[in-house]
Amino acid sequence: MTAVNMSEDAAIRATIQHYLDGARLGKGDLMKPAFAEGATIFGYVGPDLFAGPIQGLFDWNDQNGPAKDIVSAITSIEVIETIAVARVESDNWTGHRFSDLFTLLKLDGHWKIMNKVFHLHA
User: Fold this and answer.
1) Contact, 83 vs 105, CB < 8 A?
2) Which of 29, 36, 45, 57 has its CA at a distance of 20 to 30 angstroms from the CA of residue 64?
3) How far apart are CA 41 and CA 3, in angstroms?
4) Please, which residues have CB within 8 angstroms of residue 8's CB and are 6 or more apart in sequence?
5) Domain ranges, ordered by start, for the chain
6) Rounded CA gap, 113 and 102, in Å?
């Protein structure tokens, strides 16, 4: 495992914070700065695969509304030069618990989420 440079760690956390702020306020537009154009999402909601462009997350978030009682934590970040993987655990996202894995790429000096894969806990 590669040690995380503190400035890279802070930059990745700042990127993911856009996602967390959007979740708390129920506003997909607040999440958008965290994601690269063309980003995708994959995971299961019950037996159904939720997959496709990240706009699906933004739309779901807008419809779901604010998650005022959400408790989220970035539990790990691993960086390899221009790529990173981050894990986020969120509980009480309007009654749901999620484990998220994000792949990030450093584009033009800024970290962007390329893909979100999630597990919705029963």
Assistant:
1) yes
2) 36
3) 27
4) 79, 84, 111
5) 6-120
6) 6
